[in-house]
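Reviewers of the previous submission asked for a worked example of the structure-prediction workflow described in the proposal, so we include one complete record here. The input consisted solely of the amino acid sequence. No template or homolog information was supplied to the procedure at any stage.
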Amino acid sequence: MFNTPKNTKELLPENELYHNAYRVDNGLVTFQETWVNSLVSLDIYCLEELFVEKSAEIHGDIVCKKCFIKGKVYGSVYTWDQLAVEEGAFVTGNINSRMIEVLPGSVINGSINMKDTLKMPSYLSNMNQDDLKKFNVDDLMDPSFQNPKAEATVAAIQQKPVVITPPAQKPVVASPLQNRNSGDAPKSPPKKSESSGDDSHWW
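From that input alone, the workflow returned the following structure tokens.
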């Protein structure tokens, strides 16, 4: 069983993600431990721990080192260290992680794939934040920066979720399931926003 950090930040007045993030095409990347506590319709890349609080609703994919989910995620989740899907959490999307903990009362609608060979994707390890544009909340008004998965997200929300019912009062470690995906990290790296002005490389 994982030891979930106790210092949650459910009452943050603003979304901490937006303060820490840098902009890439259709997504945000952070280089530090980050909390999400509101609606986000973008892909999220985090090189450290990502906390999806009860008040959070993410429409997009998550790629990070560690992820602790209490809220709702409509998208795939890839972690190269560990993932905890906690009581009350809702995930609609495929999961790939080295270690997975699923607690009673959580809902997962998608496949689960565990592989001990998962690593940080090279497109993240090669990132240099000095080459990226700092995210500004005004970017959310940019039509080119909207989540391209909008239709798929709506379809996912309308699906009936599958409720996992583990033994009462005991956390369950999910077993690897047959999956059409290889379980590797997403092959296409996030691209640098066109607004950053440098097209010599994606990051």
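The first helix runs from residue 16 to 20. We consider this example representative of the routine output the project will generate in years two and three.
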